[in-house]
Design goal:
Layout: E1 9-13, E2 19-26, E3 29-32, H1 40-54, H2 72-80, H3 83-86, H4 90-107, H5 124-129, H6 144-147
Antiparallel strand pairs: 1-2, 2-3
């Protein structure tokens, strides 16, 4: 078997332990690479994907500082600027930022005071689906009828 030590290369093995597919994986996406490792077609596609994924985003994010007072977007901005966020590990901060910015893009202009608390409460969905198994605080569930939905 060929030993390949290139950045962003992943291998998929079959149940028998043999290598079945080679993949280029970067920024949460995965592309299959053609042919045998280090072959002409393999390296050509590898170089193309490496160059393509090095490019900065074509559309930079909108100005996130212009959200109105009381909006979800402003709440996200304030959290990302907080000491609590800055104390997180780098990998945690990266994941939090990725998720929060995606939510901010969808719901940034919506007022926070008009959203349902259950939507932001951990385990709220689990308590509604299966109330007997959720042992966490159920204060987010208003009444028994809501539990049966």
């Amino acid at each position: 078997m060929t030993k390949v030590d290139l950045p962003y290369i992943n291998v998929q093995r079959g149940r028998d332990g043999r290598v079945r597919h080679w993949y280029f994986r970067r920024h949460g996406h995965r592309w299959a690479l053609p042919g045998e490792p280090l072959s002409w077609a393999f390296m050509e596609e590898y170089q193309r994907l490496l160059t393509e994924t090095d490019k900065p985003a074509a559309n930079p994010p909108a100005d996130r500082r212009s959200y109105a007072s009381g909006s979800f977007g402003l709440l996200v901005n304030e959290y990302l600027a907080s000491a609590e966020y800055r104390e997180k590990k780098p990998s945690t901060k990266l994941e939090y930022r990725r998720v929060l910015e995606a939510l901010q893009e969808l719901h940034g202009s919506k007022p926070v005071n008009q959203t349902e608390a259950a939507a932001y409460t951990p385990h709220a969905g689990r308590a509604r689906r299966n109330p007997g198994r959720c042992q966490h605080d159920r204060s987010h569930v208003e009444d028994r009828a809501q539990l049966r939905r």
